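Appendix B, example 12.
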Amino acid sequence: MTGGSRGIGRAVVLRFAREGFAVLFTYKSNIERAREVAKEAASLGARCVKYVQMDLSDLDSIRSAVSEIASSAPYINVLVNNAGILHLDSLETASVEDIEVVVKVNLLGTIIFTKLVLPLMKKAPWASIVNVASIAGETGNVYASTVYAATKAGIIGFTKRLAVEVAPKVRVNAVAPSFVETDMVREFLSSEEKRKQIVDLHPLKIIIKPEDVAEAIFFLASPKLSRAVTGHVLRVNAGRFT
């Protein structure tokens, strides 16, 4: 699980912990928050919990993390590629440096990390990859940048092609959430008026929670619940399509 110390990632870690999985997740910099999530996961029934520092924009960091993971786990059943960064600047105003970081973290780093852990997944009796994409990768009419949308569209294409390449040993799917209430988007929910604007964008008239996305991810990861599903993008969007 990449990016497991907050938001959607934390919810996923805890969802798998409740089922008694051994859980390993990465974090970028906040080790205290990672420790808190690990402690909570253990209290919920995780068979064991480990957290590893990794920066998806840094190839050496990715390699180091994979080496540490490989020394801890003989195989991996489930990989959830969740780590990412939100980007809001238009293409004209974004710096080249910021563009490069967003592409590295949201797309290139995810692809490389997946490539490096695939050998561990192929050792498992069953294996499933779930990528966290976004509604931004399917429609241009969202409050996110061109660069962010491009990376999430890339994740969708990556999901569909990889599903073909690694079948039948590994299933590969994605979730494409709409606006999810996490600390990354706190500024958009800072008043009742702003919350209502977000709610009104969605036909179900709700704000999606990290736990909603975690349930969808668990469904796609489970060989019991979705054994015939691969190459699919599950929209967790409360009915929003634009």
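Residues 96-122 form the longest helix (27 residues). Helices lie at 7-18, 31-44, 59-72, 96-122, 146-166, 192-200, 210-221, 223-226.
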